[in-house]
Amino acid sequence: MSKQGDKPKTAEFHLLPKIINGSIAGIVGVSVVFPIDLVKTRLQNQTIGPNGEKQYSSMLDCFKKTYRAEGYFGMYRGSGVNILLITPEKAIKLAANDLFRFYLTRPDGTLPIVNQMLAGGLAGACQIVITTPMELLKIQMQDAGRVAAQAKAEGRKVERLTATALTKRLLAERGIFGLYRGVTATAARDVSFSVIYFPMFAILNDMGIKNGQAPPFWWSFLAGCAAGSTAAISVNPMDVVKTRMQTISKGSGEKQYNSIMDCVMTTLKHEGITAFFKGGACRMMVIAPLFGIAQTIYYIGIAEYLLGYK
């Protein structure tokens, strides 16, 4: 059971400030960790060549090559799309979890762990309406430099699309569903992540409660980091599958996948089980501070003060 967020049924739930807090948290968090997320995407998408060669030998090598080829702002390729869409995405995720926790809390104010997991899973399911197109566009922008570098080394030239041009192309070719490529893999990743993350964060955050007072901001930050990194590595295999399925512009010799099972079996056959943990360290480095920062800002309650709820 958990104390954090648990309230008697007679308590009021104010959704608007939760949405505003989630939006602010998302913008700040993603701005800080985006370069690491870019490296994660490129590491997950690279495949081993016929002679065992790799485009990037490590996370640091990917950082160096990206910075050398594309400069500082190259590390933020695709960030515009991500920051634009992370606002509703984080708002939905954080506010929906609190909303479901509120309504799943028992009349005596307790919230069993099963209900916490259900609330988290429902919040994860709600966010995919925004997450799927956001990740689809972000991945193309992030991976464009890797594909271009590979093409240049082979004497080819690859046209680099903007997020706007890509969106128009997908809408023209497949309608609105073109922006939801990989939605099943995204749902599997995000629901699983939220089922693990939110209950774990609530339990860890409750440990910082002293004399009935809310935990200090740094405790919420550490709780978010710990829960985020644990959930991130747990769902990394599905994140690899999702990333590969959503990548439209492939490098030479890289395969397009027909389904989640096709992606899983092909990756397992040609690269082994370790391929599903590519970018795992990067993902933990992205998610830990992202959710640590997001949860800290979210629970500071800026919107409550501005709107007069405190």
Give an overview in words:
The chain crosses the membrane at residues 20-39, 286-307. With 310 residues, the chain is mostly helical. The chain has eleven helices and no strands. The chain is elongated and about 65 Å long. The chain has helices at 15-45, 59-74, 79-104, 113-153, 163-174, 183-206, 217-234, 236-246, 260-271, 280-300, 302-307. It has a single domain, classed as Alpha/alpha barrel (Mitochondrial carrier fold), CATH 1.50.40.10. The two termini are 26 Å apart. The mean pLDDT is 83.
Q: Quaternary status of these chains? A: single chain
Please state the overall shape, judged from the principal axes of the Cα atoms: elongated
* Tally of separate helices: 11
Structurally, the number of domains stands at: 1
Terminal CA distance reads 26 Å
Q: Number of DSSP strands?
A: 0
Q: Which residues form runs of ≥5 with pLDDT under 50? A: none
GO molecular function, one term: L-glutamate transmembrane transporter activity
Transmembrane segments: 20-39, 286-307
Solcar repeats: 13-103, 111-207, 215-304
Family: Belongs to the mitochondrial carrier (TC 2.A.29) family.
